[in-house]
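U., I forgot to send this yesterday:
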Amino acid sequence: GAEVKRRILIGTYVLSAGYYDAYYLKAQKVRSLIKRDFDLAFEAGVDAILAPATPDAAFAPGAVTDPVQMYLLDIFTVTVNMAGLPGLAVPAGLNGKGLPLGLQLIGRPFGEETLYSLGQVIEEAAGRFEPAKWW
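Result:
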């Protein structure tokens, strides 16, 4: 789709010769710091981390057209990718307007089994729901 193409082009542009040192090397340093923070948490005995998946409830397709606003909706899930950890987003109920809310679980390296078990517990606690038809 158009959004995937846009993100690929942005990544390609940032990694081009003129921007490699300015962005990529700095990003690698930040990535190492983020990974270290997760490693310290897991070394302290944390099995998984529960966090919101997005800063707000879901929106109807086409309701958000500004690419920057779209990228900001992904902000809470970026660190999982940067740290190379398994993550799982699960439905967690509805907000006051009846829009779906999501939580994410972040696990230890190769800890997918734990995430699936925890995700099932969250889904069962949140209950099944059908969002209002928007189409």
